[in-house]
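CORE FACILITY INTAKE
Project code: CF-77B
Contact: R.S. (postdoc)
Sample description: multi-component assembly, two entities in total
Requested service: structural model of the whole complex
Turnaround: standard
Below are the sequence entries exactly as provided by the requester. Do not edit them.
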Amino acid sequence: MGELPQTQPSVKLGQRVPDFEMTTYDPVRDDFGKVSLVEQIANKRWTILFFYPADFTFV
Amino acid sequence: MGCDIVTVSTDTQFVHLAWKKSEKELAAVTYSMAADPTGKVSKAFGVYDEATGLALRGTFVINPEGVLLNSEVNFYNMGRNIDELMRKFKANVYMGRKTNEVCPSKWKDEGDKTLVNPGAKMVGKVHEALAG
């Protein structure tokens, strides 16, 4: 497995997650945009965040 | 129930665009690809690897109130099963509506067997409850 990752503690189940805002690439519009938790809550949307190490690798 | 899948890595949006356009495996992709080049969001979710500056394979289901209901983190070398992710998501949505029911391990979708009001009577009798 090689060297083990070094991560820090984070948000727990049942907690309100910290606000976030990120710039996105939206393939449907073929343009850049934004995603933010505040907006997701305002629009009453579920969110699945799907983290992965790097583009151009397997996901 | 509306849901947005957002993929996140520490790459920039420019690299996301380039990858999407060059990798044929991504041809059908419609979800937003978010950029977290500072690692700030990855850190908030505990998936930022200080040793590499990359995000581990973490999946987080957040409800419309902004509350974290499900998390899964895999090491670099293990991919995720999308069917299992969708099972968890559907179960969370279902249980949000039916707060007296629980979704057992074999629950896959609306209409599958749930356990209703699990309590003292079900102790030691889960097998019968699942069969009934």
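Facility notes:
- The longest strand of chain A covers residues 21-26.
- DSSP finds one helix and three strands in chain A.
Invoice: internal transfer
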